[in-house]
Amino acid sequence: MKTTYYAKPGEVQREWLLIDAAEGKDGGMVLGRLATEVANILRGKNKPQYTPHVDTGDFVIIINADKVRLTGNKEDEKVWYRHSGYIGGLKKETWREAMEKHPERIIERAVKGMLPKTTLGQQQFTKLRVYAGPEYKEVSQKPRKITVEA
């Protein structure tokens, strides 16, 4: 009788991966396609020992987040809303405003939406590092640069 293999949390081998968001067509990668690939790497779905209830994913560093782009006319029409809870407290932020202020948060928000809404998803999200420019802090980890078909 054959049994199904389940990865144990202590025997997971993790590595650091580096993704350059500026390497896509027309100057940058498409946000949704990049976020999908990163979410799969964070969850460990690209490994043969993937186990749904164990964090088997790798660490991901994304550089040049300010080069990410959207398709169509979403750059002009995409808006995020939040409410303070007070009367007249509806705030809105367009995609262009968000890119000028904090381009890292756009990628983080897109990836976080593609991870499970559980404590496991929160744990997997902590393995993501996003930087607006080409410099990053985790040089001593010696990340392996990968190309993503996005």
Describe this structure in words.
The chain has 150 residues and is of the alpha/beta class. It has a domain at 14-72 and 102-145: Ribosomal protein L13 (Ribosomal Protein L13p, Chain: A, Alpha-Beta Complex), CATH 3.90.1180. It contains 5 helices and 6 strands, in the order βαβαββαααββ. The chain has helices at residues 31-43, 74-77, 95-101, 103-113, 119-125; strands spanning 16-20, 59-63, 79-83, 90-94, 128-130, 144-145. The termini are far apart.
Radius of gyration: 17 Å
Structural class: alpha/beta
Assembly state of the chains shown? single chain
The shape, in one word, is globular
Number of strands: 6
Distance between the termini: 41 Å
Spatial order of the strands forming the largest sheet: 5-2-1-6
The CATH architecture of the domain at 14-72 and 102-145 is: Alpha-Beta Complex
Mean pLDDT: 93
Q: Give the topology string: H per helix, E per strand.
A: EHEHEEHHHEE
Unreliable sequence segments: none
CATH topology of the domain at 14-72 and 102-145: Ribosomal Protein L13p, Chain: A
Output the number of helix runs: 5
Strand content: 15-25%
Main sheet? Answer: 4 strands, parallel
**CATH-defined superfamily of the domain at 14-72 and 102-145:** Ribosomal protein L13
What is the share of helical residues? 25-40%
Q: What is the CATH level 1 assignment of the domain at 14-72 and 102-145?
A: Alpha Beta
